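User: I've been trying to design a sequence by hand for this structure and keep getting stuck. Would you show me what you'd pick, starting by listing the structure so we're on the same page?

Assistant: Good idea, let's start from the same input. This is the structure you sent:
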């Protein structure tokens, strides 16, 4: 479920597909927790644990994408500013 631009935690990218940086404090908190979790995974799985670290990165990224899809604008291919964005 995507949210309107005024309440979305993550805005859709202007060029390409997906989401850009967070637009609300809740999104920044989610993004900070994601980066911190990656840092902890790197500390935990140093040397000789590449598979475990890779699995952590995949799981954490999947969770971030799920949250973006849930609390962000609807992603679609965009090539600059659309007619919908001109009033905003």
């Amino acid at each position: 479920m995507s949210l309107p631009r005024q309440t979305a935690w993550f805005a859709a990218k202007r060029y390409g597909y997906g989401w850009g940086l967070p637009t609300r404090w809740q999104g920044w908190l989610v993004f900070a927790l994601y980066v911190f979790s990656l840092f902890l995974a790197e500390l935990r799985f140093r040397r000789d644990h590449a598979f475990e670290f890779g699995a952590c990165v995949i799981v954490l990224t999947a969770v971030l994408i799920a949250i973006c899809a849930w609390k962000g604008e609807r992603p679609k291919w965009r090539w600059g500013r659309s007619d919908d964005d001109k009033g905003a």
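That's my pick for every position. To get oriented when you compare it with your attempt: The chain has two helices and four strands. The radius of gyration is 16 Å.
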